[in-house]
Design goal:
- There is one protein chain.
- With 215 residues, this protein is an all-alpha fold.
- It has one domain (11-208): Orthogonal Bundle (Glycolipid transfer protein, GLTP), CATH 1.10.3520.
- 63% of the residues lie in helices and 0% in strands.
- The protein is built from nine helices and no strands.
- Bound molecules: ligand 1PZ.
- Residues 40-41, 43-44, 47, 51, 53-54, 57-58, 111, 114-115, 118, 139, 143, 147, 155, 159, 166 line the site of ligand 1PZ.
Length: 215
């Protein structure tokens, strides 16, 4: 279900949105994918303004996707699969170097897709963490294993500084608003396999079409 604005924030609903991405024939719905990111951005904003340079970029990319969806070719942007087919068939993607299509759907979604891998790794660490573990450490480890390789030094530096401003594990769990730590762990256990599946389907599709390095 897509969250309504007036509802109190709950991370469970956000993660449910990612689960609802999957169609019966294992395609990834862009509306729900983007709604999931919107929810995550809202969550991140509630953690403090040091994250605003991250949310600005995420919001920008979300908006690019929403614009495609609302545009005259919107129906081609219903799923990641239909988007890839459409943009490749029409030659709307800069594959090897930046040129006429600096904001293609394929390129823009790839950035969010890479960030989804960070999310998966981070949530898995959170799920298996104990009271003594630090969110900042879990977050930076997940980042170094995923997104960091695609970011220049200056962004890695800024991200590292932002991670230090993350609240500790108890507060972080509270802001998630899912319930007791046990309930958080259970919720993450339910949500992660589906987030993983969304990630993997997209990864396989991009890999098949050699789209994993769009500049
Ligand atoms: C809860 C803590 C939040 C940690 C978030 C971890 C991700 C750190 C990402 C740092 C991104 C810095 C800002 C801009 C980066 C852009 O240069 C890149 C590449 O885009 P391009 O320049 O090629 O157009 N953008 C990205 O990699 C997408 C980043 C999206 C991050 C979304 C985070 C949502 C966090 C949810 C929190 C639960």
């Amino acid at each position: 279900a897509v969250m309504s604005e007036d509802q109190k924030f709950c991370l469970r609903e956000v993660l449910d949105t990612f689960q609802s991405c999957l169609t019966e024939n294992k395609e990834v719905r862009i509306d729900q994918y983007v709604a999931g990111w919107r929810g995550l951005v809202r969550f991140m904003n509630s953690l403090g303004s040091v994250f605003s340079f991250i949310s600005k970029d995420a919001v920008n990319k979300i908006q690019i996707m929403v614009n495609y969806r609302n545009g005259e070719n919107g129906e081609h942007y219903a799923t990641v699969q239909s988007m890839v087919k459409y943009e490749l068939d029409k030659g709307l993607v800069d594959i090897t170097k930046r040129g006429s299509f600096p904001e293609s759907g394929c390129r823009t979604l790839l950035r969010l897709h890479r960030a989804l891998r960070w999310l998966e790794l981070f949530l898995e660490r959170l799920r298996t963490s104990t009271e003594v573990d630090k969110t900042s450490v879990m977050c930076s480890e997940a980042y170094n294993e995923s997104l960091a390789q695609f970011h220049p030094w200056i962004i890695r530096k800024a991200a590292g500084m932002a991670f230090c401003a993350l609240p500790g594990r108890p507060t972080f769990f509270e802001v998630m608003n899912v319930g007791t730590p046990e309930q958080v762990v259970a919720m993450l256990g339910d949500a992660l396999p589906l987030i993983s599946e969304v990630y993997q389907l997209t990864q396989d599709l991009y890999s098949q079409h050699n789209l994993l390095d769009i500049p």
